[in-house]
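Narrative summary of target 7.
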Amino acid sequence: MAKLTEISSYLEKIAFDHNINVIWSDKLSPETPPGCSLHYRNIVMNLNWHRPAEVSFQLAHEISHILNGDETDICFYHATFTGKHSVEYKANTGAVKLLVPFYYQNVPKESINVYDFMESYEIPSYLDNVVREEVHNYYFSGKH
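Modeled conformation, tokenized:
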């Protein structure tokens, strides 16, 4: 099994706390997206994904599908824009909400750079406003 990064450990703890099982596979093609089963509360992640920096965002995305209780049992990662009311957009928004507290935990307000955050996790540019809103909420909601 691949060595888990700090962000993977952080996200896996969130999954564990919500009774979600994360399975890491190194047997999948680099083009096979991760997926989840809401019924079984399982997520399968692809260790061979062709854009490794995106894996943390993918894991947060799949966790969000389950936390959101999305209507479909099986969901496969899909980062492209499919409309603000779509299941995928909501999972992407949830992923940003999960990643922001980890990324910014030791970053002073004066050093905020949403583009570094987005680049770090290969977050799609159409989520720019979501990222800005979540970062603002993180720093100005009193939770930080």
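The chain has five helices and four strands.
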